[in-house]
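Protocol step 4 of 5: obtain the predicted structure for the target chain.
Materials: sequence only (see below). No template structures provided, no constraints applied. The aim of this step is simply to have a reference model before the mutagenesis design in step 5. Sequence pasted as it appears in the construct record:
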Amino acid sequence: MPFDADQDRWTHVVRAAARFRDASHTELAAPEALAIRERTRGGWLRWGAFAGRSHPASVLREAGVLDPAQRRVGRWACRTVWGLAPPLYIWTVGGFLLPRPLPVGRTAVFAVVAAAALGPASSLLPAGFGLLGAVAVGLAVSSGLPAAVRRLTRRRVRVVGGDEPYGPVFFRLLAAEQRLRILAERSERPELARAAAVLPRLLWDAAGLVPVAADDPEARELLCGYAQSLGLLADQAAEVEQQEEAVEAAIRDERASVVPARAALPEGLLPRALLEEARLELEELGQGLRHARELLDGAPEGGHRHARSGETDE
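Step 4 output (structure tokens):
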């Protein structure tokens, strides 16, 4: 899937390409077909997109694989000349179609070389001829340098087209590689990380088998075996991920259903029986105090009057 199944990014890229096509009034080879180039870690993918839909459809047209053994400088040199999107020819001058926009790299090379050659050319030739000479040198270098780099790096790049006999087999291998790589990045399991580490070399070897698979039975068997084994590995990785998610969900449900344990009680607490005994003693004491108060409220005053009356009677 384009852009590692990022549907929003794919839709944005397709709509941007459609707007540019409509603004430039470019006629396409196929109705509503757009060429979208996706840069990947190990090369590039060229997609055919069909605009005018809420979710544009995609068809893989070409896959490019860079040699994983080369260094970063070599990979950068390969990317400057290989897998570039073809320019849209929308300017017509004197019957000739001119590309727009101009490639940034070639334009920069042309500007630097022409500026550098202007001084020596002006000193050797008249002013007008010197300027023309500098422009000619700039055009020659900006056109010849990419061709030279392309020739030097042609053994470091392998391109597989969808029209090749065993191109679809390689595309199925690419799909399994994408699934396994995404699972490895998401699960962070060491087993999947080790499997994902060999994928760039596997793609490089498989891309080299595609051109000879039609005529060589051994190459055809190896290519189909690579695709089948990688597909089974991706299916197994997806099954393991589903099992892990199911186990984690069961553990979460079990933890949620268990009654939370009480916190440990502090040491040295008074026994409850002692508190009950103290309550009963306080209750008896209260009853005694209430009885004594009743006696004090009535008996002393009556007894005192009775004693005095006895003394009077005597």
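Step 4 remarks: The chain has nine helices and six strands. Strands lie at 33-40, 43-50, 57-66, 88-93, 96-100, 157-161.
Proceed to step 5.
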